[in-house]
Amino acid sequence: MTSYENLRHDGEILHLIESANSVLGAIGYTEHGMAHCVKTGTDASRILETLGYTERECELAKIAGLLHDTGNAINRCDHAQSGAFLAFQLMKDRGFPFEETVAVTTAIGHHDEKTAAPVTPLAAALILADKSDVRTTRVRNKNDIYSDIHDRVNYAVTNSKITVIKEQKLIVLELKIDTDVCPVMEYFEIFLERMVLCKKSAAFLGCDFELIINDTRLL
Fold first, then answer.
1. How far apart are CA 42 and CA 58, in angstroms?
2. Is 86 strand, coil or helix?
3. SS3 23
């Protein structure tokens, strides 16, 4: 019961993730369902793996990504903290070691930019993975791109890739933005705070952070 794959196919967890995604859909947010949760966990795990963390630490990163947005089922406000409490109970009920449960809940509780901080390597990797998931397919209704800047920016990002270059101690987020949909400046208008947080998270992991948009280095 204490593996990522068990949680990935757990009926209660799947229902909770879908409920959280439905809540956000009802109030006009982008997709926060299984696609986002799995991608976040996979990218967080890959970041730690590339930097030499243990196999179990990388699996815990996948679990943190899977569970990190469940708090939205309660309310968008303070969802990181409520999600951490939910994850704590879910992992405890499924027999996870206490230390691992605390590690995952600490990361989840620090992932939302309003209260975020890279307090552990797991938290830093989760922040980097979560904040880099900007893509066209997260937009629920393409008609909203004309009135909603968040949908417009996500819709404009045709490719997003986060890469760790271990030898250079460098974490790179590379984006392709369709400037016919929105200018690059709109990305910074809503995501600058997130990019600063990514820079801090990379530094916690002993790396520099670079943002490259349309082949131009911007951070």
1. 9
2. helix
3. helix
Q: What percent of the chain has pLDDT over 70?
A: 100
Location of structure tokens 């209704």: 141
CA 122 to chain centre: 12
Task: Please report how many Cα atoms fall inside a 13 Å half-sphere around the Cα of residue 80, on the Cβ side.
Answer: 16
What's the whole-number average pLDDT of the chain?
97
Locate the domains of the chain by residue range: 4-217
Residue 75 has φ and ψ, to the nearest 5°, of -175, 145
What lies within 8 Å, CB to CB, of 89 at 6+ separation is none
What residue type is 212 in one-letter code? I
pLDDT confidence of residue 116: 97
CATH number of the domain at 4-217, please?
1.10.3210.10
Which residue is it, tokens 């990305």? 187
- Burial label, 100 (beta-carbon count in 10 A; 0-12, 13-18, 19+): middle
pLDDT value of residue 112: 96
At residue 21, the pLDDT reads 98
Res 146: pLDDT: 87
pLDDT, one tens digit per residue, over 119-169 is 999 999 999 999 999 999 999 998 889 899 999 999 999 999 999 999 999
In a 10 Å sphere around its CB, with 0-12 CB exposed, 13-18 middle and 19+ buried, how is residue 141 labelled?
exposed
Q: Which CA distances in Å does 208 have to 111, 175, 178, 202? A: 19, 17, 26, 6
Residue 164: what pLDDT? Answer: 98
Query: In the structure encoding, which two tokens stand for residue 128, read together?
Result: 């980097």
